[in-house]
Every structure is written in structure tokens, then in C-alpha cells.
């Protein structure tokens, strides 16, 4: 339908410039980190992964100046300007409410269809799924918001019996979300998430598939460029054939570049210089777990060049741990520890830290403490000397 022609890249970018441009696109530099609403930040970066909403909140914090935790809660629960549901890669994301319609219309059918094998393993046959999703719609129309337990209990009372100890309930709920029936609602006081009827929670303007595909590529390269079409496929979860179609549709608004010998793109509105501008101080940022800056590309070798640090940040189980980045490059792992009177930011550096980086870490920890309303202490270990922490209380 749309012809894909590999780009004739006309500007080869240095690694340092690629990192600088990506950090700028992700609002991770001093010049791009500014006071904004949660919805505006999420529009700029096309969403944040949010299987841990606590991590997504910190992802909003690191891309803003002065944002409060309360403003994120209000945007999610009262203003409904941001919405949490399953989108890119079929995983939980929080996005601007105005982006929900076109993203869901494009990605929802893809990931709903891709789960058929797993559904069969869980005993979710076609008839059960049809009846289950329709029943969920009617239940939430009458009684939302509901927790998962309450929703499964009401399904049982209406003849949809699911083993509450299996993954069948969450897979049926996820299917209903991908089909545009529900999304996450406000958390209860104990932190338990709830589900609501999506039509009652956020508007979903319709969008043609071609329009949504082109918009996906435009928004991706604005938020992640310079990047490749393979990066777009990895971030979105769409097949490479579809992302090539998306790039073809968005091509008039994209500039062609070379990234480590590979053809890539960035928005034409962001023409690159031949080298990064000189700055007095490095841009130091404390990225949370599952941060989209590290999830947005096919591999992380450019942002995390040290193999030992890559292994430290991603140790299996699908977890991507918090990282300290300096000018777009990861140099340390970090975690928040201690629930008592002296909570600490614990850093595990993988190289020697300069005085300017130390100062940047202190400033970031101070802002993190402001956001969390905690008086944080900082503890920095010797490079790569600490044992890997077993868990993190607030990532």
C-alpha cells in the first residue's frame, strides 16, 4: 500500500550528538526540562511504560521542572487528562488522554490478535472471550470503578467463571482494554487499582489506520529521534513491515541521517549540528525503572556502552532497573532504600564520577526528595563494588 524506500542518509551523526539529540527529544536536558503538565509531557514523549505507576510518576518528574506528585494524581484521577492502559508492545502505558484514541485503534487489534495462543492455554476460547468482554462492558456501565477482585466476582455471578488464581482474569481484562472497553480508573486508598468503562473516562476520537500509522512514526521520531525504523518496530511492538509503512507515510516530515552506519530519521524541525554544543555543566538525570529513554530502541549499547552496567540494569524477569545518565549516557545504577527517618538514594557507579557529576546527582536527588516529600540522603559506592540489591522500594 505504501512504498518503502530505504533512506539515502545525508548526514552521519557522532555518538555524542545522537545521545544529545535523543536526550533533548526526551526532555532530559536542562534546555528541554521545563514546567509542564503531565499531559503535555506525555504528548511530547508519546507515553511512559506504566506497569509500575510509581516509576511512571518518577518518569514524569525527571522530564519536568517543579512538577508535583499531587499534580500527577490529579491528572490521572480527577482531570482525566492522562490515561493508563495497555498500548505499545502490549504493555501498560500512561499516555495523554487526547492520544488514547488513535493509539488504541492502531495497536489494540494487533496485540489482541497476538494473544490468541496464550488465551487458549488459559481456557479463554472465542465464545468465552466474546461473552466475557460484553459482560465486563455491562458490569462497568452499571457499577464502575471496580477492582480486579470485584470485577471477577461480578463476572462469576453472571456466569463467567474464571480461576482467580490463574492469569485468565487479567488476560480477559487486558483483552477488554485492547478492544477499547475499559481502562484503569482511580486507585483506591490502599493503592489497589480499579477499572472503568473507557467511554465514561476519556474521549476516543476515531482515526483511520493510515492516519494513525503516519502519526505513530511522526510522534516516535519527534520523541526518540535520531532513530531507525527497526527502533520504531521495537518500541511500538508492530511488525517491521508496518513500521516501514508508517515511516513512508511520515517521510515528508522526517530528516534522513546515519547512526553508526545505519540509516535513520529525526524530525525535520530538529536539524542536527555537526557536534553537540559545549556546556558548562553536564545534564545528570536519575531515570526510574522501565524508563522509556532506555526502552525506546532496539538495543541499549549506545546509551549503556558498558556491558557490566547493561547486565546490572537488566537482570532478567523483564525488569529494567533505575539508571543515572549523564548527557544521555548511563554511568550508574541507583535505587531508593530505607522506609524510616533517613531514606537514601543509593548509587552504584560504573566509572569514576567527576565533581560536576556529583553536583548534578545532588541536585537530582534534591528534586526527587521534593517530589516525594522525603528528606533524602545520598550514598555513593565505589565503582561497580556493590552487590546487586535484591529489591527496590520505590522505583
Quick structural overview:
By secondary structure, the chain is an alpha+beta fold.
Give a structural overview.
This protein is α+β, with helices and mostly antiparallel strands. The chain folds into two domains: 1-276, no CATH class; 284-380, no CATH class. It has helices at 15-25, 38-45, 53-61, 69-77, 97-113, 116-121, 126-143, 148-157, 168-178, 198-201, 209-224, 229-236, 240-250, 292-295, 307-313, 355-372, and strands at residues 12-13, 48-49, 82-86, 92-96, 182-184, 195-197, 254-259, 262-267, 284-287, 323-326, 329-337, 344-349, 377-380. Strands 9-10-11-12-13 form a five-stranded mixed beta sheet, with helices on both faces. Strands 1-7-8 form a three-stranded mixed beta sheet. Helix 7 (126-143) crosses helix 9 (168-178). The longest helix is centred in the middle third of the chain and has 18 residues, at 126-143. The chain is globular and about 65 Å long. The N and C termini lie far apart (43 Å).
Amino acid at each position: 500500500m505504501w512504498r518503502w524506500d530505504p533512506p539515502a542518509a545525508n548526514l552521519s551523526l557522532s555518538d555524542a550528538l545522537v545521545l544529545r539529540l535523543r536526550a533533548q527529544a526526551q526532555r532530559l536536558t536542562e534546555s528541554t526540562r521545563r514546567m509542564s503538565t503531565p499531559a503535555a509531557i506525555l504528548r511530547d514523549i508519546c507515553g511512559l511504560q506504566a506497569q509500575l505507576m510509581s516509576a511512571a510518576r518518577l518518569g514524569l518528574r525527571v522530564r519536568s521542572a517543579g512538577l508535583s506528585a499531587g499534580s500527577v494524581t490529579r491528572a490521572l484521577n480527577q482531570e482525566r487528562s492522562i490515561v493508563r492502559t495497555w498500548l505499545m508492545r502490549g504493555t501498560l502505558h500512561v499516555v495523554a488522554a487526547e492520544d488514547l484514541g488513535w493509539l488504541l485503534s492502531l495497536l489494540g487489534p494487533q496485540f489482541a490478535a497476538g494473544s490468541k495462543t496464550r488465551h487458549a492455554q488459559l481456557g479463554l476460547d472465542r465464545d468465552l472471550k466474546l461473552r466475557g468482554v460484553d459482560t465486563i462492558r455491562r458490569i462497568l456501565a452499571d457499577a464502575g470503578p471496580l477492582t480486579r477482585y470485584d470485577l471477577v466476582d461480578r463476572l462469576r455471578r453472571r456466569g463467567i467463571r474464571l480461576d482467580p488464581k490463574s492469569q485468565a482474569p487479567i488476560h480477559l481484562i487486558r483483552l477488554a482494554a485492547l478492544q477499547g472497553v475499559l481502562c484503569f480508573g482511580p486507585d483506591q486508598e490502599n493503592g489497589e487499582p480499579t477499572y472503568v468503562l473507557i467511554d465514561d473516562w476519556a474521549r476516543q476520537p476515531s482515526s483511520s489506520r493510515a492516519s494513525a500509522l503516519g502519526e505513530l512514526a511522526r510522534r516516535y521520531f519527534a520523541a526518540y529521534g535520531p532513530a531507525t525504523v527497526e527502533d520504531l518496530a521495537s518500541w511500538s511492538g508492530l511488525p517491521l513491515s508496518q513500521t516501514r509503512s508508517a515511516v513512508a507515510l511520515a517521510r515528508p516530515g522526517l530528516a534522513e541521517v546515519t547512526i553508526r552506519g545505519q540509516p535513520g530519521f529525526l524530525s525535520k524541525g530538529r536539524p542536527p549540528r555537526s557536534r553537540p554544543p559545549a556546556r558548562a555543566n553536564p545534564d545528570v538525570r536519575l531515570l526510574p525503572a522501565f524508563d522509556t529513554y532506555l526502552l525506546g530502541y532496539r538495543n541499549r549499547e549506545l546509551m549503556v556502552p558498558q556491558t557490566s552496567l547493561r547486565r546490572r540494569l537488566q537482570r532478567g524477569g523483564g525488569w529494567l532497573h533505575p539508571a543515572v545518565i549523564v548527557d544521555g549516557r548511563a554511568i550508574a545504577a541507583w535505587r531508593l532504600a530505607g522506609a524510616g527517618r533517613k531514606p537514601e538514594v543509593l548509587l552504584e557507579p560504573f566509572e569514576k564520577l567527576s565533581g560536576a557529576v556529583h553536583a548534578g546527582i545532588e541536585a537530582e536527588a534534591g528534586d526527587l526528595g521534593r517530589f516525594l516529600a522525603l528528606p533524602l540522603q545520598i550514598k555513593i559506592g565505589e565503582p561497580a563494588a556493590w552487590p546487586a540489591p535484591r529489591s527496590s522500594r520505590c522505583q
